[in-house]
C-alpha cells in the first residue's frame, strides 16, 4: 500500500452515506485538537488531506479516503470534546460514531490519536475499553512528542503502556510527531498489516 496515494473519497453525515461496507478500513479517532488531522496528513504525506483546523471540533462528518489498494480506506472520525459544541451536537456525534463503530464490518483497526501531554483522557479510555470489548485491534499514537524533551516523552510512553497493560486490544503504542515525522514509518507498517491481512 502506498499511503501517499490517499485521496478524499466521501463525507458521510449519516451512516447511510458511508461507502459500501466491503474491503478493509482503518479509522482514526481522537479528542479535538489532539493532532489527528496532522497525523493523517503526515502518514499520507499530504499536507491537505484531512483539514487541520485552528477551530477544534469543526469536522463533525465521517470522512473517507481511498488508498491505491482496491477497497482499502482510511477513515477520519469526528473529533470529540470541543467544549463549545451544544448538547445536541454531542448527542449527534455519539450517535454517529457509535453507529459507525458498532456496525462497520470492514473495520480492521482503530488508531487513537492522543496528545502526549494529555494522555488517556476520559474519551480515550472509553475508546480503549470499546476496542477491548469488541476485540478490535488498537494502535495508539502519542503525538506532538516534539513538544516534550525526549526523556519526558519516554517516561510518558512507559506510563501509558503500564496503564494499558491489561488491554490485549492494544497492538501498537507509538511515540509520534507530525512535525518531526517520528513514528510515521512504524504507523504505516502497522496500517499495512491491518489492511492487507
Ligand atoms: P485535530 O483536531 O485532532 O485534527 O488536530 P490538528 O491536527 O488540527 O492539530 C491541532 C493543533 O496541534 C494544530 O495547531 C497543529 O498544528 C498542532 N499539531 C498537531 N500535531 C502536532 C505535532 O506533532 N507537533 C506539534 N508541535 N504540533 C502539532
Summarize the structure.
The protein is of the alpha/beta class. The chain is 34% helix and 22% strand.
Q: How would you sum up this structure, described in words?
A:
The termini are close together. The chain is globular, with a radius of gyration of 16 Å. The chain has helices at 36-44, 87-103, 122-134, 150-163, 184-196; strands at 7-12, 24-30, 62-66, 72-76, 107-115, 138-143, 170-175. Strand 6, helix 4 (150-163) and strand 7 form a beta-alpha-beta unit. The protein is an alpha/beta fold and 197 residues long. The chain has a seven-stranded mixed sheet with strand order 1-3-4-2-5-6-7, with helices on both faces. It has one domain: P-loop containing nucleotide triphosphate hydrolases (Rossmann fold). 34% of the residues lie in helices and 22% in strands. It has five helices and seven strands. Guanosine-5'-diphosphate binds at residues 30, 32-38, 52-53, 56, 79, 143-144, 146-147, 177-179. Guanosine-5'-diphosphate binds next to helix 1.
Describe how the helices and strands are arranged.
Layout: E1 7-12, E2 24-30, H1 36-44, E3 62-66, E4 72-76, H2 87-103, E5 107-115, H3 122-134, E6 138-143, H4 150-163, E7 170-175, H5 184-196
Parallel strand pairs: 2-4, 2-5, 5-6, 6-7
Antiparallel strand pairs: 1-3, 3-4
Function: Necessary for normal cell division and for the maintenance of normal septation.
Organism: Marinobacter salexigens
Domain EngB-type G: 22-197
Average pLDDT number: 90
Give the tally of structural domains: 1
CATH H level: which superfamily? P-loop containing nucleotide triphosphate hydrolases
**For this structure, what is the CATH class?**
Alpha Beta
| Helical residues, percent | 25-40%
Unreliable runs, pLDDT <50, ≥5 residues?
none
Strand-pairing-aware structural class: alpha/beta
Sheet with most strands: 7 strands, mixed
Task: Tally the helices.
Answer: 5
Strand content: 15-25%
**Assembly of the depicted chains:** single chain
Sequence of secondary-structure elements: EEHEEHEHEHEH
Spatially, the strands of the biggest sheet line up as 1-3-4-2-5-6-7
Ligand identities: guanosine-5'-diphosphate
The Cα radius of gyration reads: 16 Å
- Based on CA inertia axes, which overall geometry fits? globular
CATH fold title: Rossmann fold
- Tell how many strands the DSSP assignment holds: 7
Spatial gap, N to C terminus = 12 Å
Q: What's the architecture, going by CATH? A: 3-Layer(aba) Sandwich
Family: Belongs to the TRAFAC class TrmE-Era-EngA-EngB-Septin-like GTPase superfamily. EngB GTPase family.
Function: Necessary for normal cell division and for the maintenance of normal septation.
Protein name: Probable GTP-binding protein EngB
Domain EngB-type G: 22-197
